[in-house]
């Protein structure tokens, strides 16, 4: 009996494996795509990074002048990048004001009290500041390196835990070629992938028994973005499960905490010396507010807090499972816990790039064989593409100003249609909301794939109906 | 929850040695971790090492112009501006009024269109820092009592500025009358910088916050403040190239002035519906400067540029140059005609200004 034809995806993976170096091929493809979309890097965020570089070049560190609201790690990376840009790449002026693009922030002028404009300001702030192309390029290159690192870590994780190199290659491709990952580094110019790399490194170091360095990396991750804080109980549970019965549990827990403390101390040292550690956490508060914004912000904050409050018992439940089931199941449960904590975290509607935290864990299980997660991957990726479509006109600002492609007049005409036409910003929001809805469905698809079956079985068991 | 019994549980066996077999070569995971930590720490050192980015400038005046030398340890861009104040006295000493009643009374003005609560103390600190970056260090923060003392010195008012971020002045200096101390002080030669609200709209005393209906007229001669909530500017003012030359970028006209019809004034920055983001208006021998916009670094930077460059309502840009720099660059700026009150303002970084310095002849 002839064998059925192989699935196209499998055939593709086989072809990749038979080439000289499949990872290299994927990297080349991914970099070409990134370089192609990189000119779309958002002027709003790149201007923001340029302001931070300006502040530290002015000798005011990260928090002396207004502009930096995050914890210090990403700022330090910008510091390192700034040294390379000014010393080696000859970046002079970081950017300039594009007079022709002044209408862009005016579209989202919330002071006009127009509801649509206020929504636009909240969801898609725009600026007429444009940053130097070399500045953008070098920033993107650094972020690309972290994209590769994230994909490589998933590759290693899949390879180590399944022993199947084909699946590992698939995992690498599913991360590195994922539109969401590409969007985050190439178009958003955001550093979420940096944080996820640190988180993955922490997990892999724990698997290697290097608890000190694992602690250092999770400390770095949390001081980059707070999200990984919610998986810390899982990591602690993993250490306990792994070393239970060996008499080394306390030693490794202490080593992990030593790594956490040492890195936190080193990272926060400038602020500690200045007696101004709270400036690192200024993002928790808001320096300005208007009467009209307060209610909206307060409602949003309350809902967010409620969703985040769910994460604590969820994280603790997975931690309990890890400890109870012991070393044998600890790895799988740790990764599953990370996936579900980040998925539930994103159930409070989050910017597209935040879903980067879900993706590596989703891809791990997908590549390892959980095909039910395919829908989640596809929808989240599709949503990322739609987000780019929604913002594409404003995203062309840098290219229009510095390269004249397209002309700034054409770009502004397109932007006016998108954000301020006869129908207000309806075209923009139509695409934007679609993108958000598609991504949200992607998250729900992940929840369904992971928990849906269990819930159905439980309901059936209670009703006395036999399982299908 | 994880681990449904109906589905075959996928158990991932940890590999015996997840690291590289053999153990001779260092594991890529460890190397990546160490590299990232090193990158972050190196970035931290760069961020907080004041010796890495060093900027300096020198100037030498001569008949009809000035020679200058600028230096930067890192790649940057510099602008050199030859300005002439044409007899109007620019500010060399600044008092910043910190209103301790700002938060107490804010709710009473919060419903005004475009009114935004700001962390007043934070923005006062930001002004001190952004001015220091530009070489303007004669700055002191004062309360109502100290402010009252400042405005009592009418004879010494020329060259002195008062900056307020508050929407109200204390009754010690202003209570809505034409002969109030602060108005007298301005007329005698002082300069008032008003930021973020309707100028002269309110004063406070022991009994609370009070509205001054004709406050704008008292300070400016007529009503011309943008109180309609129009905010974003979409065009640039015509100001002899000063907006471009100073790399101003606060494109916001909230509480800005419409200076049409006002004598001896200079509108700078950006405009919308006739309102400009910065306006410098002569008031007898003194000056009123209104800086529009919301609380953000755009506004703070533009305000600092105006003060540090010593701008007045009669300032003109005589000559200017801009170039990329790494190391030392020199140049000269000259005037075709006679200069009455020249100053050279050099700054580095363009719109992303990192250092500035003013040289007076």
Biggest interface: A-B, 104 and 83 residues
Order of helices and strands of chain B: HEEEHHEHEEHEEEHEHEEEHEEE
**Strand line-up across the major sheet of chain A:** 1-2
Number of helices of chain A: 20
pLDDT < 50 stretches of chain B: 1-11
Q: Care to describe what's here?
A:
The complex is a heterodimer of chains A (468) and B (361). Chain A has 468 residues and is mainly α. Chain A folds into two domains: 43-94 and 132-276 and 291-369, no CATH class; 102-126 and 370-468, no CATH class. Helix content of chain A is 71%, strand content 1%. Chain A has 20 helices and two strands. Chain A has a two-stranded antiparallel ribbon. The longest helix of chain A is centred in the last third of the chain and has 38 residues, at 426-463. Chain A starts with 7 loop residues before the first helix and ends in a 5-residue tail after the last helix. The model of chain A is unreliable at 287-294 (pLDDT under 50). With 361 residues, chain B is an alpha/beta fold. Chain B folds into two domains: 55-86 and 315-361, Immunoglobulin-like (Sandwich), CATH 2.60.40.10; 89-311, Rossmann fold, CATH 3.40.50.880. Chain B contains eight helices and 16 strands. Chain B has helices at residues 28-47, 102-109, 120-133, 144-152, 181-187, 215-220, 242-245, 297-308, and strands at residues 55-62, 65-84, 93-97, 139-142, 160-164, 168-170, 191-195, 202-205, 208-211, 235-236, 265-272, 275-283, 286-291, 316-334, 342-348, 355-360. In chain B, the strands form three sheets. In chain B, strands 4-3-5-7-13-12-11-10 form an eight-stranded mixed sheet. In chain B, strands 1, 2, 14, 15 and 16 form a five-stranded antiparallel sheet that branches. In chain B, β11 (265-272) and β12 form a beta hairpin. The longest helix of chain B is centred in the N-terminal third of the chain and has 20 residues, at 28-47. The N and C termini of chain B lie far apart (77 Å). At the A-B interface, α3, α4, β1, α5 and α7 of A face α1, β2, α3, β10 and β14 of B.
């Amino acid at each position: 009996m002839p064998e059925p034809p192989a699935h196209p995806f499998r055939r593709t993976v086989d072809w990749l494996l038979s080439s000289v170096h499949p990872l290299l091929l994927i990297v080349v493809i991914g970099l070409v795509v990134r370089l192609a979309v990189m000119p779309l890097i958002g002027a709003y965020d790149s201007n923001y990074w340029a302001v931070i570089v300006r502040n530290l070049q002015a000798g005011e560190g990260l928090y002396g002048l207004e502009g930096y609201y995050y914890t210090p790690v990403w700022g330090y990376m910008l510091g390192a990048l700034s040294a390379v840009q000014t010393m080696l790449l000859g970046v002079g002026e970081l950017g300039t004001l594009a007079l022709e693009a002044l209408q862009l922030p005016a579209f989202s002028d919330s002071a006009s009290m127009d509801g649509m404009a206020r929504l636009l300001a909240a969801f898609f702030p725009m600026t007429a500041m444009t940053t130097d192309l070399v500045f953008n390029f070098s920033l993107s290159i650094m972020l690309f390196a972290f994209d590769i690192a994230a994909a490589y870590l998933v590759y290693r994780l899949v390879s180590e835990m399944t022993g199947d190199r084909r699946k590992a290659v698939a995992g690498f491709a599913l991360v590195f070629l994922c539109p969401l990952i590409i969007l985050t580094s190439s178009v958003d110019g955001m550093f979420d992938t940096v944080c996820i790399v640190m988180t993955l490194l922490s997990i892999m170091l724990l698997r290697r028994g290097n608890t000190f360095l694992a602690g250092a990396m999770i400390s770095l991750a949390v001081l980059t973005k707070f999200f990984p804080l919610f998986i810390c109980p899982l990591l602690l549970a993993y250490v306990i499960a792994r070393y239970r019965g060996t008499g080394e549990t306390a030693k490794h827990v202490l080593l992990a905490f030593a790594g956490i403390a040492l890195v936190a101390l080193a990272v926060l040292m400038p602020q500690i010396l200045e007696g101004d550690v709270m400036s690192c956490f200024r993002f928790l508060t808001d320096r300005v507010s208007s009467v009209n914004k307060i209610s909206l912000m307060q409602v949003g904050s309350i809902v967010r807090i409620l969703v985040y409050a769910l994460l604590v018992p969820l994280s603790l439940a997975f931690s309990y499972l890890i400890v109870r089931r012991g070393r044998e199941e600890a790895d799988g449960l740790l990764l599953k816990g990370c996936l579900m904590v980040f998925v539930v975290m994103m159930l409070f509607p989050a910017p597209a790039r935040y879903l980067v935290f879900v993706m590596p864990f989703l891809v791990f299980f997908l590549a390892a064989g959980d095909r039910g997660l395919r829908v989640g991957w596809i929808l989240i990726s599709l949503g990322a593409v739609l987000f780019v479509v929604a913002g594409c006109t404003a995203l062309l600002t840098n290219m229009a100003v510095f390269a004249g492609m397209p002309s700034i007049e054409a770009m502004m005409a397109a932007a006016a249609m998108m954000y301020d036409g006869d129908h207000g910003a309806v075209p923009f929001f139509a695409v934007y909301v679609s993108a958000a809805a598609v991504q949200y469905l992607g998250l729900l698809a992940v929840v369904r794939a992971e928990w849906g079956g269990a819930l159905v079985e439980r309901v059936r068991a209670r009703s006395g109906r036999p399982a299908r | 929850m994880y681990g449904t019994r109906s589905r075959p549980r996928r158990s991932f066996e940890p590999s015996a040695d997840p690291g590289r077999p053999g153990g001779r070569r260092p594991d890529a995971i460890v190397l990546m971790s160490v590299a990232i930590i090193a990158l972050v720490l190196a970035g931290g050192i760069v961020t907080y090492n004041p010796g890495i980015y060093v900027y300096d400038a020198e100037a030498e005046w001569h008949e009809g112009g000035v020679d200058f030398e600028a230096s930067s340890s890192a790649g940057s861009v510099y602008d050199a501006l030859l300005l002439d104040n044409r007899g109007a006295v620019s500010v060399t000493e600044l008092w910043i009024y910190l209103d301790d009643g700002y938060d107490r009374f804010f709710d009473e003005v919060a419903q005004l269109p475009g009114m935004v609560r700001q962390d007043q103390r934070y923005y006062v600190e930001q002004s001190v820092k952004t001015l220091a970056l530009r070489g303007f260090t004669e700055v002191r923060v004062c309360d109502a009592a100290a402010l009252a003392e400042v405005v009592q010195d009418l004879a010494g008012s020329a060259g002195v500025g008062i900056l307020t971020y508050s929407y109200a002045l204390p009754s010690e200096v202003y209570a809505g009358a034409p002969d109030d101390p602060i108005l007298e002080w301005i007329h005698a030669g002082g300069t008032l910088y008003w930021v973020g609200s309707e100028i002269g709209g309110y004063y406070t005393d022991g009994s609370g916050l009070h509205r001054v209906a004709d406050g704008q007229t008292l300070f400016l001669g007529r009503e011309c403040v943008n109180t309609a909530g129009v905010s974003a500017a979409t065009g640039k003012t015509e100001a002899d190239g000063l907006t471009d030359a100073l790399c101003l970028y606060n494109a916001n006209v909230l509480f800005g002035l419409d200076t049409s019809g006002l004598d001896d004034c200079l509108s700078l920055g950006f405009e919308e519906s006739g309102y400009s983001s910065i306006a410098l208006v002569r008031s007898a021998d003194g000056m009123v400067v209104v800086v529009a916009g919301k609380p953000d670094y755009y506004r703070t930077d533009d305000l600092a540029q105006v003060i540090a460059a010593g701008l007045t309502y009669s300032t003109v840009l005589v000559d200017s140059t801009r170039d990329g720099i790494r190391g030392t660059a020199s140049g000269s700026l000259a005037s075709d005609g006679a200069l009455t009150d020249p100053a050279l303002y050099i700054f580095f970084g363009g719109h992303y200004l990192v250092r500035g310095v003013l040289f007076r002849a």
